[in-house]
Amino acid sequence: MCRWFKILKRIVYLFILSLSVSSCTSQGSINSSKADINESVSRPGIETKQVVIEKDLWQYIINRYTLSAPNQKKLFWHIDWFKKNPDYLTRVTKRATPYLYLVTKEVEKAGLPIEIALLPIVESAYYPFSYSHGTASGLWQFIPSTGKLYGLKDNWWYDGRRDVLASTKAAVKYLKNLNKLFKGDWLLAIAAYNSGPGRVQKAVRKNKRLGKKADFWHLDLPTETKGYVPRLLAVAELIKNPSLYNQSVTPIDNQPQVRPVTLNSQFDLALILEWTGLDSDELYSLNPGLKRWATPSTGSYTMLLPIDVIPKFEKKLNAHPKEGRMRWLRHKVKSGESLGYLSNKFKTTIDQIKSVNDLSSNVIKVGEYLIVPIAQKSENYYSLSEVQREKRRMNAEKKGFKVIHTVKSGDSLWKISKKYDTHINSIIKWNHLSRTKPLKVGKKLVIWRSSVAKSDDLSKVINTGIDINRKVTYRIRSGDNLSTIAAKFKVSVSDLKLWNNLNDKKPLQIGQKLKIIVNVINSKMK
After folding, report:
1. Fewer CB atoms < 10 Å away: N or C end of the chain?
2. Phi first, then psi: what are they for 394, rounded to 5°?
């Protein structure tokens, strides 16, 4: 009897064990639908364990969501907008490719909800050069005062608000502080990131005083902030279930695309481009905090580079002396020259000239020699420097009429907005201006108008500088050069180079086609 009892006990044990294995296998197949790879780790005497690895970074993020809305109705308007603009999410998720892994890791390292890595989609569409009318800049749209508070430097060479790594670290720190302020309520912290903590605190206090619920969904907040949190949650939902909403998400490998490299001296970007084989647009897009043709002149600088070019770059870096990383000119001071004049002439700063030449004041003497840094290449070579981006804005093509306004003495943003019947915020956004800095006399501003007033005659149109642009394709003939072509079409040589990606090393070829943007009114073209 005892023997049969032992056999029965053994059968029951084996049956339970088979159920357990079946359950593990079933669960593994569920995980397999959520992940790209399932690896079985098996050792003698140890139970088999399923290890889930997500190859796609979006899937990695989706599997770790923690934030939600009370119901889908809260997200309806935002989801509906994306459904009406089905290509938008595809473009934005593609633009996030170089940055998303870095941002995700910084968010996770700080213990923030992983949805925070999607916040730049809402803030800037993951465009690092994004600039709003509130003078907010970069992926995380820091305004100058908050940027300064969180250690983001802004000087002639560099703007930390646009630096991908520096601004991400600052944003993570800011959001962590906001979360602490709102006692762990992430939705309130995110709302405060948009409209400021004071405004959200005031709304919370008001609801508590009235005996109402004081969570995000019941607060009386500005319209923009009311939509800000739902838009983030809507983006999270769309990325999780793209096919449900007729969306397409650009896949991103779940591995680093770029790595930071620390530079301990100033570098001409032309040298970095030569060493890495990158093109200018790519280097600036990874390092959008760079304003000019070189890295910052003081302190170390952390540059982001694609992982595959770093070994080659570091080899060159170790073999190249510091003295050869910038080009220097020995200039003899002439009558009438000042440090301000020289800094403008050589596209550098007064402080850098003083530092290099060990000057204790701004006074310089005629006949003395000064060492000044100069770019190794022409201005157009540095394609996404602040100067070149301003040129692109001036030459941008949009609906309506473009007005080029030259700032005169006594002008203000208010006066200019009234003159052209537009908003101050629009002028600031079109020209990347700061509200707090006065306009510089002689600066050219681009203004967009939907139409020309009926009372405007042709002479008034010409005087205000309205551009009605037309694209022209010109085929180069014998005897042509950039100067003669520019004169013929009333454009600048630098614009010709910019429109056609020309450089000084390659001569023009007979029969070569050039794209030219011609002002129909102001040119003599027939």
Report:
1. C
2. -65, -30
Q: Enumerate residues 6+ apart whose C-beta is below 8 A from 329.
A: 346, 371, 372, 373, 374
Q: Which residues contact 493 (CB under 8 A, 6 or more apart)?
A: 482, 483, 486
Q: Tens of pLDDT along 248-283?
A: 999 999 999 999 999 988 888 999 999 999 988 899
- CB 274 within 8 Å of CB 376: no
d(CA 216, CA 184): 13
Please give the Cα distance from 103 to 120 (Å, whole number): 9
Q: What is the pTM of this model?
A: 0.68
Q: Tell me if 273 sits within 8 A of 503, measured CB to CB.
A: no
Q: Assess contact for 272 and 314: CB atoms under 8 A.
A: no
CA pair distance 217, 226, nearest whole angstrom = 8
Quick check: 124 pLDDT over 70?
Answer: yes
Q: Which amino acid is at 290?
A: L
Residue 282 contacts residue 364 (beta carbons within 8 Å): no
Taking domain 386-519, whether its CATH number is 3.90.960.10 is answered by: no
Q: Which of 106, 115, 123, 282 is catalytic?
A: 123
Domain 58-245: give its CATH architecture: Orthogonal Bundle (1.10)
Question: What six digits make up the tokens of 44?
Answer: 């003698």
Residue 115 appears among annotated catalytic residues: no
Judging by DSSP bridges, how do beta strands 513-519 and 466-467 pair with one another? unpaired
What integer best gives the mean pLDDT of the chain? 80
Checking if the pLDDT of 399 tops 50, the result is yes
Q: Using alpha carbons only, what angle is made at residue 224 by residues 219 and 228, rounded to the nearest 5 degrees?
A: 80
We find that the CATH architecture of domain 327-381 is Roll (3.10)
Residue 123, pLDDT score? 94
d(CA 517, CA 430): 19
Within this chain, domains 327-381 and 386-519 share the same CATH topology: yes
Cβ pair 103, 58 in contact under 8 A: no
At 348, the pLDDT band (50, 70, 90 cuts) reads confident
pLDDT of residue 413: 83
186-191 long-range Cβ contacts below 8 angstroms, 24+ apart: 186/67, 186/113, 187/67, 187/215, 187/216, 187/217, 187/229, 188/215, 188/216, 190/116, 190/119, 190/228, 190/229, 190/232, 191/216, 191/219, 191/221, 191/225, 191/228, 191/229
Structural domain boundaries in the chain: 19-53, 58-245, 260-280+292-324, 327-381, 386-519
What's the number of CA atoms in the CB half-sphere (13 Å) around residue 473?
3
Query: Binning pLDDT at 50, 70 and 90, where does residue 517 land?
Result: confident
**Kind of pairing between the strands at 369-374 and 301-306:** unpaired
